């Protein structure tokens, strides 16, 4: 069974705890924010999702799920900005999508730093790197996701 750590102070916590006994962090609030972010992500409301994940990160910066969620939302925003490019031939959209992918990679890196065995984060980072044409780096991430 995997050890659960407080996303703020990194103290071990019980799986059914509502608060961290050391720092008092409200674990229920963080989980609600991540759950709300996931709902917005599924509804393709990416900015709302990012806002939820960022609030969770502010409460506990060592929360791999919050970083992962934010990265996923940024990756999706990048893909959407590419689709806009195809429709409107906008010159800014390719630059915008690159910025989303770069930001997503940073968030995936945070999730991986917190939890090096987070296979979905490795997979997502590989997808973002692939979008940027960094195939060799992407391949290494995909290998880590297995």
TrEMBL record:
Keyword Repeat belongs to the record: yes
Name assigned to this protein: Tetratricopeptide repeat protein
Keyword Hydrolase on entry: no
Alphabetized Pfam families for the sequence: TPR_11, TPR_17
Domain of life: Archaea
PANTHER family per record: CELLULOSE SYNTHASE OPERON PROTEIN C, TPR REPEAT-CONTAINING PROTEIN MJ0798
Coiled-coil features, chain-numbered ranges: none
InterPro entries membership: TPR-like_helical_dom_sf, TPR_rpt, Ycf3/AcsC/BcsC/TPR_MFPF
Matching PROSITE patterns: TPR
């Amino acid at each position: 069974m995997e050890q659960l750590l407080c996303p703020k102070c990194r103290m071990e916590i019980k799986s059914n705890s509502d608060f961290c006994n050391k720092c008092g962090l409200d674990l229920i609030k963080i989980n609600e924010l991540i759950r709300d972010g996931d709902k917005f992500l599924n509804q393709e409301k990416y900015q709302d999702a990012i806002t939820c994940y960022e609030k969770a990160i502010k409460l506990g910066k060592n929360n791999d799920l919050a970083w992962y969620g934010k990265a996923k939302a940024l990756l999706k925003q990048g893909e959407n900005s590419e689709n806009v490019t195809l429709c409107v031939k906008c010159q800014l959209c390719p630059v915008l999508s690159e910025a989303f992918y770069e930001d997503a990679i940073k968030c995936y890196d945070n999730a991986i730093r917190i939890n090096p065995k987070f296979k979905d984060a490795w997979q997502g980072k590989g997808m973002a790197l692939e979008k940027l044409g960094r195939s060799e780096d992407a391949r290494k991430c995909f290998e880590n996701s297995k």
